[in-house]
Recover the amino acids of this structure.
């Protein structure tokens, strides 16, 4: 997934991910003071991840744009991972831009995780910010292909529960034609059949058995395995039977 710079040379942001990891791009307005790529990982609590590149040239609109961007970002999910090359020397305590930048991130309760140099000259320019997630094993590696170090980390994300499969049995009533059903009932229920019945209960049972037999002939019972996205652990056999009893009484 990538977002190239539309004008000039250099810049652009991109991510690489395994094919089995579902990533969903999010549409957030662009800002002229920095480049970004936003996507989410489809989990029980979607992790919204943002890759940012801020060009090194000073831009007076950056902090204002960043605040507007974070407002939109934080409204999309409580779990946020914000990382990239911000080209701000946050290790310099006397840097006015760095102080204002850190205050804005603090307003949104987004935590800065990098506490080591990420550039060959000893400055901390590449940052990792998190909110609502746990990361570990944060470190840097010099790949010798850039003056910036590669940042690696582990993210603790809940594993989605597998969908439960159940077997269900049903009649395909949509394919049932009323005319053949009516004819089947007439052929299967001679008047003498009901004259032999001596009680109301026996009459009802005979009628139900007759209907079931005709229905099974015209729309046989089918069984298939289905998956349920949301498990309901409280829905055991007992409430299932009670629900069926209610339908019978209705």
């Amino acid at each position: 997934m990538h977002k190239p710079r539309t004008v000039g040379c250099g810049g652009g942001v991109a991510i690489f991910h395994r094919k089995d990891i579902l990533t969903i791009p999010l549409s957030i307005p662009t800002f002229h003071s920095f480049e970004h790529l936003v996507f989410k990982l489809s989990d029980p609590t979607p992790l919204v991840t943002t890759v940012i590149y801020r060009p090194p040239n000073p831009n007076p609109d950056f902090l204002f744009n960043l605040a507007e961007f974070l407002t939109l970002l934080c409204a999309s999910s409580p779990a946020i991972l914000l990382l990239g090359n911000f080209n701000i020397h946050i290790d310099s305590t006397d840097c006015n831009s760095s102080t204002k930048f850190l205050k804005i991130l603090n307003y949104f309760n987004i935590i800065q995780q990098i506490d080591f140099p990420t550039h060959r000259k000893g400055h901390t320019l590449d940052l990792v910010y998190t909110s609502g997630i746990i990361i570990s094993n944060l470190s840097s590696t010099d790949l010798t292909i850039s003056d910036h170090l590669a940042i690696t980390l582990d993210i603790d994300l809940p594993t989605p529960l597998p969908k439960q499969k159940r077997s269900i049995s049903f009649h395909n009533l949509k394919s049932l034609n009323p005319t053949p059903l009516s004819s089947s009932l007439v052929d299967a229920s001679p008047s003498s059949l009901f004259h032999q019945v001596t009680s109301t209960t026996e009459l009802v049972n005979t009628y139900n058995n007759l209907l079931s037999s005709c229905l099974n002939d015209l729309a046989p019972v089918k069984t298939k395995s289905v998956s349920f996205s949301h498990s309901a652990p409280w829905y055991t056999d007992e409430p299932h039977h009670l629900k069926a009893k209610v339908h019978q009484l209705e």
Summary: The longest strand covers residues 134-141.
